[in-house]
Design brief:
Elements: H1 2-15, H2 24-39, H3 46-58, H4 67-72, E1 100-101, E2 105-113, E3 123-129, E4 134-142, H5 148-159, E5 169-174, E6 178-184, E7 190-191, H6 192-196, H7 203-222, E8 235-237, E9 243-245, H8 250-254, H9 264-284, E10 301-302, E11 305-306, H10 309-312, H11 318-328, H12 339-347, H13 402-428, E12 464-466, E13 470-474, H14 480-484, E14 497-498, E15 514-533, E16 539-545, E17 564-569, E18 578-596, E19 599-600, E20 611-612, E21 615-623
Amino acid sequence: MAALAETPDEQSDVAAPQGSEIEPEAQAVPDQVEDDVEKDVQDDDEPAAVQESSAEDSDVDEPAATAKPEKSADPETAEPKTSPEQEPAEPRELAVVGRKLGGRYRLERLVRSFGGGFQPEPQLWVGVDELLNRRVGVDLIATEHPLIEQVARAARDAAAVADARFVQVLDAVQEEDLLYIVTEWVPGAEQLQERLAEGPLSPARATQMVRDLAEAMVRAHEAEVAHGAMNPATVMITAAGEVKLRGLLVEATLSGAEPESAEPEDRYAADVLALGQIWYASLTARWPGTEAGYGLAAAPADGAALYTPAQIRAAVPKPVDATVCRALGLGDEDAFSTIKELSDAIRSLPRMREEVLEPTTALPPRSRSGRPTGTATPPGEPQRPQDGATWSPAAEPARKPVWRRRGVLAVAACAVIALGTLAAFQFSGNDKNDGQSTEGSVTNPTLRPSSGGTVSIPAGTKGQTLTISSDTIWDNQPSSGSEASAADAYSGSTTGWRMTTQTNANWATSGDGIGLVFDLGSAHTLDEVKFQVAYSGATVEIFTAPAGASTGWNANGPTADNFTLQKTLTNVTSGQTLSASFTPVSGEYVAIIFTTLQQQSEVTSTGTPAGYRDNLLDVSVLGE
């Protein structure tokens, strides 16, 4: 074998200067042949080749190198054999479910890997801070990773930027085998990438979002920290419509981009461009480039010239369109050189009327039956001009005469004085009733503990996590969005299942509530259910049913379909894992039904009306 024949010669060249009394070729070749026989399974013809090699190598007058061409010509021995010690080792497992870091952070679920080529790849996990009883994000990176020092430094720099619009870095600790970075976890938040899959945002909402991101990045740049990886996947929209940006500097470093190696001006300019791309995508639901990106189709172009947002969507105001183009470096105007310039330009834009009136999608709203209910233009609002038409902000209301405003103020002052006098009389009480309860008086209500299960996260579970094969919505008229997100309740989605908003206060009278029924595929012994909600204050009931039970909605409630109530959780808390444990019971189906909900306000970013609703996420069923 050619590769093995080279080894004796290389050894002899090294051994000769040391004054060895044994002739190198005569001593090394038999040893090498013996090793070959022990390591490789030879063909019938191979021993002859070995003998021939030995004979040739034993001739001291002929250099050992002359044997190399003859051996390499043999196709069966041309490729070197690799010993087990030389085979590349499988990348080690970075972490497992249930591992506890620092005696505090317990890993629950792997979200994704960052890539970058180095094995094992850095990973993002969802974990539980058992000290503070809350969900956290945990970035893991192996200690042998070549960028571990840069990642640790990036985490420290990101933690120094104090702005609530960033997902905060809470902790960073290096152990023997890995570095872990603990970050804030935002329950019920939705990636902008997921939101744009449903359609573009309204121009006002998109502009407000980018304005918040730009103001946050101004603070970061003032602290000499760049993001380096802003995109629709790092922008989060909370259930309340607020904006969160995750991965400040850390995201880019974990992905192997090494943003610190670039000049500061280049790093900051990249953030400006990224914000322009996010703004463009939010207005058009198209990615500004020659290729598709982040689940969005590529933006149309006229040759090499990219269409502006206003050319794609007539509702985009001209001042907004011009500012987006400057952020992207399109057109004749100079591009923004700093994030502060972009932030100031956005703040100087005129207020847009559609901040309140315009729907947030380009598609008409849908009824519970899924059919369009009308046009996207709100009632009473004139149609927006088409391409080429001018745009101007809403006119300010005419000012009332000074004398009328003074009269209103006088009346208001009198009303305040009257109310103050009445309040003082009521709170002063009556001396005759001191120390006695008065019928009809108002007393502070006594807070009572929940009669249901606990909301604390147990140290362990009674059984193993069972596989959920599918789920069914317990609602007689679920919306299309509710149906599309049903599987998100248990698939690891950060938003979970989105319940259809109920506008009627008596929504729970039919069917005894709204929720999901989970199918485990076969009967198991069940003893615990875990989940999270997006809003606090709801009452949730946990049911189980045996194999063969009906899972279709029933106006008489789950018990009419052979479901048995196992647990009731009242006044549940959002942002942490809720646990409902019960006596082990055999069953194939588990139902989580909301029987009371808190009323929520309108969310303009998603076009969700005010009403009663909640999200259900991270559902897991335990047993055996």
